[in-house]
Task: structure prediction
Amino acid sequence: MSRAARKTFLIGDKTPVFFRFAHGPVENPILFAQFSDVNPMEESLFDWAEEHRRYDVVFSPYVPKDEREWRREHLKLSFAVMLWEMILKDDTRLNGIIEWNEGTKRAYVRPFPKNRLSSMDFERGEGKIYYPHFMFPSRRIENYRLTSFDAKTAASLYIREEICRKMECYPLALRVETDDMGKIREILEPTNLLSEMWYLFFLAFSGKVKLRRCSVCGKWENMEGHRKTWSKHPNCANYQRVKRARQKKRAEERP
Ligand SMILES: [Zn+2]
Result:
């Protein structure tokens, strides 16, 4: 490659990075959160993945092939998303999920299925949750060597590490394009569904994409185009109003 040709691929600091699919723009920036809410006991993750897969060409060396492998991926992503939600909500259960070794000043975490959370006893064993250790090998949170323990910081570092690990397995591809004005721009493309979802999670984790759960139905909603005070879907608000009115009427009718 000549020096001049190589130069055309240099991208300045001020050039925005576009993220999109190989075949079009990102349609659903909250796909990762919706995936993490899928209950593997009720729905096939493999079928879900097939339904949302939009890549004909798979570049990454490893892609989950069956239900079991999808479950493993789902566990990792839904666990990380759950921790992220807990950080945002100042959920004190984080103290029970992240383990702290006072001697080594190290923090550990064991990913577990999200649906087990409700059955966990956070009071037992000095605030530590109880579940068989052999089932979920604990993972040390690297680079976490502080003098005192802070569950939110540790959880946040775990998420950061997990995103890095997953983006290494399922990387983004760089495409260089020229727009109508002849200006070079860079476009990041997911190489498969998992690289897309982990990157979308990164965008949410870093605050670039904002999403919120509806206070009525609990489903995730992309905050783009919504007011800052958005808390529920209009349909859900309606449903709630009707339900309340009915309850009020019934109470009034009661002798
Ligand atoms: Zn709703």
